[in-house]
Design brief:
313 residues; alpha/beta; Rossmann fold
């Protein structure tokens, strides 16, 4: 008996659970996993592929991960722009699994990747970089952190619900109802975040790597540079000097580091300036997985920004 049918039969025997609960869904990173889990609530739980402090930019596939992909009914990922090391293994190992690439999903608005460390005055820079050096792949062209705009998260849950409804028609009504409830929750969260960060709109800051432009654009925030162009490559001395000058010139109040990477770089950039160091984590490494992950992530980012840029007020 195929594994999925066997699991369904066991589920029915021990608890009267619908056979459709055996649908096997894999989500790659914690924000995506949280959104998928919200859509699947009451039916089943997706598996999380990249957990803990692992960065999707540098993550390595293990044999157990390969087996998980091979057995999945649906794999949901952002795309090669974020989980770059997964692109080739996913194509080779997913087999008959249906793959949903959220960066290519209708309703999800993707922004171009930005180039360089300092970005000048920090305003309207998202569409002026990253397209002048010949043809590039999606991994270089697009910023993959789409979930940092709740309107994108809302589009993603709707799209995931429709895909799941196609695969698992018996639970289509539940998936769609969950997506409608999630959309209402995300709208309320969006209003809450707007209120939280409005007092610090326009105040300049630097980030560790360029992961936040969706958050910036949605809420009028003013990031003026990133320490690294790519998180797996350390900046050289010339870039560090330019960034330190940018901190002074812009009057940046904060420089944010990320827990997955060397905190010494932020200390180097802030040395001799009045900028404070604080932490932003777009992947929410310390937040428990599950349906509550996404709102907790977004509230935590808003709180970190408001507290540091607002001087703790």
């Amino acid at each position: 008996m195929p594994r999925r049918l066997l699991a369904a039969a066991i589920a029915v025997a021990i608890g009267g659970v619908s056979p459709a609960a055996a649908i096997d869904v894999v989500a790659t990173v914690k924000p995506v996993h949280s959104l998928v889990a919200r859509v699947m609530a009451g039916v089943g739980e997706p598996a999380l592929l990249i957990s803990g402090m692992a960065s999707p930019h540098t993550w390595s596939l293990r044999p157990s991960d390969a087996r998980r992909l091979q057995g999945a009914d649906l794999v949901v990922w952002v795309g090669p722009t974020l989980e770059t090391p997964l692109a080739k293994p996913l194509a080779a190992l997913a087999g008959a699994a249906k793959v949903m690439t959220l960066s290519q999903t209708d309703g999800v608005t993707m922004l171009p990747a930005r180039e360089g460390g300092p970005w000048g005055d920090g305003h309207d820079h998202g569409h002026d970089h990253g397209h002048s050096h010949g043809k590039k792949g999606e991994a270089e062209e697009v910023d993959g952190h789409f979930w940092l705009d709740p309107t994108n998260a809302r589009a993603a849950v709707n799209a995931v619900a429709e895909r799941l409804a196609t695969i698992d028609a018996a639970n289509a009504g539940r998936y769609r109802a969950n997506a409608r409830a999630a959309a209402a929750e995300l709208e309320a969260l969006d209003r809450e975040l707007t209120e939280r960060v409005t007092p610090v709109r326009g105040r300049p800051f630097l980030v560790f790597h360029d992961a936040y432009q969706y958050l910036e654009r949605r809420y009028g925030l003013n990031a003026v540079g990133a320490i690294t162009v790519s998180p797996e490559r350390k900046p050289g001395a010339k870039r560090i000097r330019a960034l330190r000058q940018q901190v002074r010139r812009s009057g940046a109040a904060c420089v944010f580091r990320e827990p997955q990477f060397d905190p010494g770089l932020v200390a180097t950039v802030t040395e001799g300036t009045s900028a404070k160091a604080a932490v932003l984590d777009p992947l929410g490494s310390a937040i428990p997985d599950g349906t509550g992950f996404y709102p907790e992530l977004m509230r935590g980012l808003a709180a970190a920004l408001a507290d540091c840029l607002g001087g703790g007020r």
